[in-house]
Design brief:
By secondary structure, the chain is an alpha+beta fold. It is built from twelve helices and twelve strands. The protein folds into three domains: 61 residues, Arc Repressor Mutant, subunit A; 168 residues, Histidine kinase-like ATPase, C-terminal domain (Heat Shock Protein 90, 2-Layer Sandwich); 93 residues, no CATH class. Helix 1 runs antiparallel to helix 2, helix 5 runs antiparallel to helix 8 and helix 11 crosses helix 12.
Length: 338
């Protein structure tokens, strides 16, 4: 067991940065550099990692143990068939909980591309190394953020990311629950939706983030990554957002900073109304103020007094507040009718 843990530490160090690995490994394990170099050589000979360069230019990479790529016509495609032909053979030796996560998230994202993208082609990549597996699902459709923007008549596609983060949103409510992206984003180590110049990214070190980069190709790309020995289960994620004994998706966590454009502060009632849009679909809303230094009185009043007074059956729980934000929330709550 100890040896497996040390191998994982080595693989993680290589994944983070392929340079100066022996020095960092020696420091991490408390061993000599000679012993660390020996472990590196053994990992290379076992094909767990690859070495490129010489001397001070040496860099290590995780070796790809498996790579699959297929392009499909969207019309007539079925996600369970894609799973069985592409992913099931790769996942066969994974622990059951890891296999269940991949089956859930992968088929949900392929189904989203089939049902919602209006694409002509869907391309899928699956890459496995000794540490983790990554899957990419890409389509050449209209783009998920643009589609949500048009469906909800939003001013900016960035507002679509806030709706995805809340959960329970779908452009096809008769056939979909709107839960797939929300739960998939929480169950993987890394979940990243890219469309146009926007990324909606969730990882377990940073939570939900909006990232803007130069515009990429048309359509939507979803990236999922999971450690091959992950202990996470789909059940624990579903239970985290369910009402006890009801097993319904009734709780959500909303990163408030997603409602804040770069250079802006959350001060107005209109910003607050965008934030609380569709809160009535939940029984508990956890408002995560991480990354929000301050809020204005109108914003706070709209959320914690006006909305709460008219939705007494919905529990609003603010967390990760700065002293300034906490003070504004307390002021607004003091005006809430009992």
């Amino acid at each position: 067991m100890k040896n497996n843990e040390n191998i994982k530490i080595l693989l993680t160090l290589v994944s983070e940065n392929g340079k100066n690995v022996s020095i960092r490994l020696a420091d991490k394990l408390g061993i000599s550099r000679q012993a660390a170099s020996a472990r590196l050589k053994k990992a290379v000979s076992s094909r767990l990692i690859s070495r490129h360069g010489v001397g001070r230019g040496v860099e290590y990479f995780l070796t790809e143990l498996d790579r699959q790529h297929q392009e499909y016509d969207r019309e007539g495609l079925a996600e369970d068939r894609v799973w069985r032909s592409m992913f099931a053979p790769i996942a066969a030796n994974f622990p059951e909980n890891v296999r269940d996560i991949w089956r859930y998230g992968f088929t949900e994202m392929v189904n989203n591309a089939i049902d919602h993208s209006n694409a002509r082609k869907i391309s899928i990549w699956i890459i496995r190394n000794a540490l983790y597996t990554e899957a990419w699902v890409a389509d050449d459709g209209e783009g998920i953020f643009n589609k949500i923007q048009n469906a909800l008549d939003l001013y900016d596609p960035r507002e679509a990311i806030l709706e995805l983060a809340k959960g329970k949103f779908t452009t096809d409510p008769e056939n979909h629950s709107g839960e797939g992206i929300f739960f998939s984003s929480k169950v993987f180590d890394l979940f990243d939706i890219r469309s146009g110049s926007l990324h909606f990214m969730h990882d377990h070190g940073w939570d939900d983030r909006l990232i803007e980069r130069p515009k990429t190709s048309p359509g939507t790309l979803v990236v999922m990554r999971l450690m091959n020995d992950s202990k996470r289960t789909t059940k624990e994620i579903f239970d985290k957002f369910a009402v006890p004994e009801e097993y319904t998706f009734a709780k959500t966590i909303v990163p408030v900073r997603l409602g804040q454009y770069e250079g802006e502060k959350l001060v107005s009632r209109s910003q607050a109304k965008r934030l609380i849009f569709r809160f009535e679909k939940f029984k508990t809303v956890i408002l995560d103020f991480s990354g929000v230094e301050e809020i204005g009185q109108p914003f706070s009043d709209e959320v914690f007094r006006v909305f709460q007074n008219t939705h007494k059956d919905i529990k609003l729980i603010p967390v990760n507040m700065t002293p300034f934000v906490k003070d504004m929330v307390s002021r607004a709550k003091s005006g809430t009718r009992a």
